[in-house]
Structure prediction request, 277 residues.
Amino acid sequence: MKFRAVIRGSGCMRDFLNIVTTLSKCGRDVIFNARPDSVIVAVNVDSALTGLQLWCDIDREAFFDEYSMQGLSDTHNEIILEMKSASFVRALSGISRTTSSSFVKLKLMNKNMASLCVEIEVPSSVPSRSCPISHDVPVTVVSRKEWNRYKLPRLPDFEMILGVPSVKFFKHIIETMKTSSPIIEVCTVKDGTVSFIMESTMAKISCHCRDQAVHCEGSQEELSCKIESKRLALFLTNSPFISSRMRCSISPDHLVRFEVEVQKKVIMTCIIPSSCD
Prediction:
């Protein structure tokens, strides 16, 4: 198996650091799934502290300037790696120390043990020279027989998909609701209204976002689902993509999906199950 990828754009480098940092705050372990056309970086659900299902699908053409991979075989052309999220963030931290990094290179290596080599080229104190910073992140190469445990969940159809205001808009609202009740009801209406409702013995608080973009109407007029407020607050609080577009959808069997468009063809997805399950 072989994997090598290079990111050169400063915006993409910062987005990649932010993606991994967000995941690290929601689980101890990160799954890195390299495919011929994309990379999926996800929280390992088995080790997650919060029960969130959270991942980011990164399109190869949209994000990487160089990309080559050779998977397990022609019929199973993927590579699945598991690593400590804190170690991955630490290896990428050189991006945050400088705004003028030339590139970030990711390469699967075998130096006494399997590792993902993260190399960041930063300016040197000597003019016209650069200084590469390299970190080897220990990884576990997941065997083929274990792949099913690390695959993305099979999701039901989300017929009604509505746009919602940015992460920045919701952070303080959900934080306020979280302190009043452990449960928030999320409602989507076919006319483009997304509502967040909290009820306690003392009060009822609701936030109605009307005239939102309707990406898919679906057959039902309205869908609703009650979820744990702390799970939604955790996702929003740890997301640095405060100005990115968001979408919300609810499945008939009570799953709420939030999608953040990090950039075109780079989507972070958060799945929160019903608190009644």
Observations:
- The mean pLDDT is 87.
